[in-house]
Task: structure prediction
Amino acid sequence: MIKNAEWLFFDIGWTLVNENKAFEDRLRKIAEAANTTYDNVYETALKFYKQKKKGDSETAKLLGVSLPVWRKDYEAPYADAAQCLEHLSGKYKIGVIANQSLGTKKRLEEYGLLQYIDLVVASAEEGVSKPDKRIFEIALNRSGCKAGDSVMIGDRIDNDIVPANLLGMHTVWIKQSMWQYWKQTNKVEEPDYTVDSLSELCKIF
Result:
């Protein structure tokens, strides 16, 4: 248990929202454009993720095809997202710090999640993206919360864990995405906790 936590800040993609279908659609379209198999594209992307690189875009570049449009309409909240947020919002203030296109609040409302969230700070509206520490500072300033009394929860070591650690926030790495293969190589990449799901997250808070 992280003591003195007042605010829990969440990433969105592959943290509150399942992006698997959109990701698979992108890989299938890369395979079609490159006249190769889905399995070949997936395995190539996986190798890039294990090298700490964005596998879908690197694979498209390697195969000489354009990166397909990301289908936001294929995204959906994880089955345990609403229950988890409902549980946590009874004990903590809930915020979002995410790299998202315009309309984040509207999407969260459509997902039925906004009712549990007190603050949304998203890159498109703020003009700054993670891992830039300024987007975290915006969230901390608006929440009135000290870094040491806050927790950042996200699926990416580079975008979520490292900048939050550098600011003195507590951190939880949720391994629900292709970034789960990241191997920490220094102290600043180490989260306070690692979980495999939102349901598991709720057990430590």
In short: The first helix runs from residue 20 to 34. The two ends are 6 Å apart (CA to CA).
